[in-house]
Design brief:
Elements (H helix, E strand, L loop, with lengths): L2 H36 L5 H21 L4 H4 L4 H22 L4 H8 L2 H12 L6 H18 L8 H22 L5 H19 L9 H27 L2 H4 L5 H14 L5 H24 L14
Helix pairs in contact: 1-10, 1-12, 2-4, 2-9, 2-10, 4-8, 4-9, 5-8, 5-12, 6-7, 6-8, 7-13
Keywords: Membrane, Transmembrane, Transmembrane helix
Protein name: DMT family transporter
Pfam families: EamA
């Protein structure tokens, strides 16, 4: 194989990787919109329970390709347990938030995830963060406050759900770095099981009957989320993370589109301004981290309320 052929093959792989990442982000946004639609009729616990069952339609083939011991022989069990708790909190709080807030508003909180990760990585992972990125972290926090609206609304439960959920998401990402030798299938399986158990607990005395079509929609929610995860995992094997990571912000674009198209919600100027600050701060942190090569890009994963 000559260099020109190898370059062409490599270039095609990168293009495919970018397309898979964009499709995966779209699927995650679709998952979010479906979740908002479903929590309008069913409790958060019921959504967690049935979507987790649906997720195993995708997880089953993944689990069949690895030994059973991979599920219980995990590194650092205490960190693994903490990650499971935080990932479950992330998912549940996201659905609780979108039950009351516009999709784009909640997604704005979650787009601050890379900013939280940059700050947390300094303290939990010992990664050196220069003054420029610390300044970007501070500016990103200001964007979050603007989006939250400095008023009594900041203390309303839906806003707190979104904020705490986004911090749980960031902590889950940091723990995923610390547990990077554990397979995706193992990590996703345990957090899916945890969501199933949490959902079963939360549905006690809070169960709503559903039609066959609604059951299919609840199951499809889990299938969509797992499919998004697989698409993004594959994209990272075909294209550099440095190219793919900024594409995560298309999630916010899709949140605006789906929120307007399906729920009649459109973010106001203050939310859009806060979101713009968060995105710019996140992109700068990513850019500086890529130059320094000491902070890994953050890309959406199954832990992204999926």
């Amino acid at each position: 194989m000559n260099k020109r052929t190898a370059y062409a093959i490599g270039g095609n792989a990168v293009v495919i990787g970018v397309l898979l990442m964009l499709l995966g982000d779209f699927m995650f946004a679709l998952n979010d919109a479906m979740g908002k639609w479903l929590v309008a009729s069913f409790s958060v616990g019921q959504v967690l329970l049935i979507r987790s069952v649906g997720a195993f339609a995708v997880l089953g083939p993944m689990l069949s390709r690895q030994p059973l011991s991979a599920l219980y022989r995990v590194e650092q069990p205490s960190l693994h347990l903490l990650r499971i708790v935080l990932a479950t909190a992330d998912t549940g709080l996201f659905y609780a938030a979108v039950a009351y807030l516009p999709l784009a508003d909640v997604m704005t909180f979650y787009m601050a995830g890379p900013i939280y990760v940059a700050a947390l990585s300094h303290f939990l992972l010992g990664e050196r963060i220069g003054w420029r990125r610390w300044l970007a972290v501070l500016i990103g926090f200001i964007g979050v406050v603007i989006a939250l609206r400095p008023s009594e609304e900041m203390l309303a439960w839906p806003s707190i759900f979104g904020l705490v959920g986004s911090v749980s998401f960031a902590l889950t990402i940091v723990l995923s770095r610390m547990l990077r030798s554990t397979s995706d299938a193992t990590l996703v399986t345990w957090q899916t099981l945890a969501c199933l158990v949490a959902g079963a607990f939360l549905t006690v005395g809070n169960w709503s009957p559903f039609t066959f079509g609604e059951l299919l929609a609840l199951l499809l929610l889990g299938i969509v989320a797992c499919t998004a995860h697989l698409l993004i995992t594959r994209s990272l094997k075909l294209a550099p993370a440095s190219l793919l990571a900024p594409l995560q912000y298309t999630l916010l674009l899709w949140a605006v589109v789906f929120g307007w198209a399906f729920f009649g919600d459109f973010p106001d100027a203050q939310t859009l301004f806060g979101a713009a600050i968060i995105v710019l701060a996140g992109l700068f942190i990513f850019h500086r981290g890529n130059l320094k090569q000491d902070v890994e890009p953050i890309v959406p994963t199954e832990s992204s309320h999926g």
